[in-house]
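Narrative of activities, Objective 1.

The group set out to show that a structural description can be obtained from nothing but a protein's sequence at a throughput compatible with the screening campaign. Below is one input-output pair from the validation batch, recorded exactly as produced.
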Amino acid sequence: MAVSSPQLPPEVWNRVFGYLSAADKFSVRACCKYFKELVDHGSLWKDWVVVLHFYRGSYDNHFWASLRRRKVTSVAVSSARAKDWKQLALSLPALTTVVMDQSSEEILGCLKNFPHLRRLFIRNSSMPLFLDAFSVSQPLQLTHLSMCGVRFSGALIDDFISAVSRFENLTSLVCHHTGTLEESVWMVYSILRFLPKLKHLSMSTVHIVPFSLPGPNLNLTGQDGASALTSLELINYNDNLLPEDIMQAVPCLQTLAVFYKQSHQELAELWPPVCHLKTWLSDLPQLTTLVIVKGPPVKTIVSSIPATVTNLTLRVAGISSKEMAALAARVPDLLHLHIDPWPSHLGALTAQIPRLFPKLKSLKLRHEHVPEKDFLHLHKLRDLKHLEILDNGPHLSDLTGKLRTLTDYRLQVTTLPHYRDILACPCVSQVY
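Output recorded for this entry:
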């Protein structure tokens, strides 16, 4: 039986489909030819990253044509075969973002076939790679470079910095587990010096040894006299790897994330005890986002957290009621809170959150070991728009349903499993 086309203008359907997830769009697309044409409109797929596995060999021409209709510019590819990459370049020549989930020297050579490349993510190479400005078609066009689990031909930092510095217009650089065997201080300062436009730096310190501050003759800032860096992430960090006054080199920093290698219980066994984070926070008057995973107890650093912080993530074990109150006093304008004292738990402290942080717009926490009456106190957060539950349980659906009822259904609740950004490095995606 023939079905007539819905009597609504295409622009109205486009607006409706804009609220759907990618999975829902695919379901609607399968309904009829009319919806298939509407859903394939490029405006509905602007931020979509298509994941290509090539499990069954090459994709057919109809598949590539559908991606071109959607004006897809971002892909994540897990194939290690050069022929698949060559087909990708021929089929989607306008790509601007590429994720290489299985890297090799041969695949790296295929990058020259993407003339519009601006964001490059290289992950998981079993063999050493040689990356330089000649690896891509337009090196000065590259703004984002992310490398995780990638080994390079040269293990010395001079080789690494020499290669990366050729991408002069980088605004984001991620270096996790690259096997570079050198001093973390020298690496940070070299990157700041040779990449003056860099705004986000994320680096792993897993293989790095301590080093003292550079001499006074070393230029620590960019060409304009000050670093443009606004976001810094340190992964697998030990507190003696960077000096106490390093944040003076990044006075414009707005986001600081420190993923400690050890919890504060483990740190207490070290001698001598060190906590540079307290001084770092005192040197960052423009800080708005702070992320701390493991590391020192909250009481050690709370007095140094700037009042400018509006987005706070704490995954530190054993947060007490007294520490929560001290935090509230330090950050009275907090809007976004992610608090997870795992393997301990908040318990009845959850009921104090509305009183301590009344301006919250988003909240992430665990509900395990939280009494129902204390959990339902969260409805008193009048400005709360989004709540993310980090664990699961048999009665979670009923519990969140009661909470949404108390908030007149203005509250959006997300539970696990949640969507993971394919562009986010796995080293930090579990936090964000």
